[in-house]
Amino acid sequence: MMTAPPQPVRSSARPSAHPPAHRSARPSARLIGVGALGLGVALLLSGCAEERPDPEPTAERLAEALSSGDFEELDATEGDLESLSSGVEDFGEAFGEVRPEVTVSEVEVTEPEEDSVRPPTAAVSLHHAWALDEVGAEGETWEYDTEAQLTYSEDEESWLVEPETTSIHEDFTGDQTPSVSAVAPERGKILDGNDRALVSDSTVYSIGIDKTRILSDLQVEDESVEGDGDGGATEDQQRQAATALAELVDIDPVVFADQVVGHGDDAFVEATVHRADSDEITAAEVEEIPGAVAREQSMSLPTDEDLAPSLIGTVGPVTAEDLEEDPDLDPAGLIGQSGVQASQEEVLGGEPGMRITMAGDTVYESEAVDGEDVRTSLDPQIQQLAQDVVDGIGEESSIVAVRPSDGGLVAAAGQGYVGSGLQHLYAPGSTFKVVTALTMLRDGVEPGSTVQCPTSTVIHGQQFNNVPGYPGSSVGSIPFRTAVADSCNTVFADNASDVDAEQLNRAAQDLGITANEDFGLPVQMGSVPPDSQDNLLAADMLGQGVVQASPLGMATVMASVAAGETVRPHLVVPDEEDAEDDADENGDDADSGLTAEEAEALTELLEGTVDEGTLDGMDSIPGEHVFAKTGTAEVGTGDDMYSHTWVVAFQGDLAVAIFVEEGDFGSTTNGPILHEFLSGVHEIRR
Are 201 and 186 within 8 A, CB to CB? Predict the structure, then answer.
């Protein structure tokens, strides 16, 4: 008669202190808990069980081995544990150095019938926890349970492991290993000052050579074409395909052909990324080339690729340098490479999720956290106007416009190496007299005060002159406001005897020429050393010497005067809560070193430049009154000397600095540019 198979019966984790007087012929099972009772609970259900070692130490060693891959302290019921050891290694290959924490949840011992030849067995419940931080899923843990079987050997007087790979993962057969891939988040948009998208995810085509298709595409046209003998294309066939595609997409054919040949037999080698809304390259043209394919993908692109590219920046594939700096990046992902795309990567990029698949099935997935939108202060119409204006100048130049009411950068456009006017520093010439004028106001001079404007003056052996063509009517005793309007050099040079470099440095900071880490991009505002003396200090007063400023720095000076307080410019609009926190931390007046009274006096000084000073020859600019200052800074020596030319101004809620790397005078070179720009702004706003 057949006997019934053993039936597990759960019992208390703590065995009874008083064994029963008789025992059923049915096998019994005992559950050994892993918890407060500790490990190694004695099993006292039979005489043999009393002498038999506890299975829990073996279960614990098995858990450690499933984590480390070292099974040397364990024995198998049949053969050896090589299948488990190699299985652990193969299973963990996708996770790099990461290994799971494997713990024993419970051990359930099944006793055979009293007269059965079957040995005792133990079912070990195991919990696996993979901390995924180091493979790109911060704070995520992959957890699952498996079961392993132990069998007791009377001969060896020990518990042996059944070498089943399902103890590593319930679906693991040893052949199908896990694959780890990133789940890409949706990238945040870059918005303009009106919350309209400047950049958003767009469909693009990655055009390149799929090396696995070159030979088959050639054989479609001619079945007799032979490859390299291993099923792939020959080097000549690869070079011909790569050259044809390179010529189609207008890249260096020699370089691209070398790249294609240098990649593996199964590689896809990208030649270019092509916008889906462009018709410069057609699908038919790509398909004609053996191995050439266009793969559709999503990429963050400007809605207008010509609008402020240096400010908005670009997105591209993660590079080796990026991975070295941040190993958690997805090697197959995209990252901001310049401009706001790079500086705001942490906000825009979001957090990738992770997907673990095995045998085609997803066994774990963490959701990606989409990136957040970044709002900028840019006005696209004024930005485009600024770019159109500098494009028509024909010289290295830039225009920067800042909104005084909140410090928002409205436009920044440039031509040539000068860039957008945010990075490079130059001698600001007489536009810096706005800063020097603040030191004089603080020393007691008023707009109506009489000052002396000689034709020339000598400071510690160095002669300072007024510019050629300086009006004779403004020489001698003149009001301070006239000295500013006509830009009398000698008045400001002589002021070096009344103020020091520290006061000049303080005035520059109070007008906004100071370090600015909250702009949203790396920028330079200016440099005003606090230790200049004698004739060097006199040259600094005129915007020569060693003082320097960027167009952004000088636009900020005028924005501060217009606002009546120190302006801190920004391109990326700060989060409202962060702005409130900064205000609470710094206090209402901590951010402004410029008083409303000082700004009012500076405004009065700047009023006459257009009406009767260096810009009085311009036609009337429509709109509100324009307050301005021109500047010319000599650069170089001898025959190599030339002039940087400037004009800075504000009109209503717009402050602007216009810089030309090589011009004649600020009044004659930059004045007409200012007229064109402000007139264009008026038309846009009207």
Answer: yes
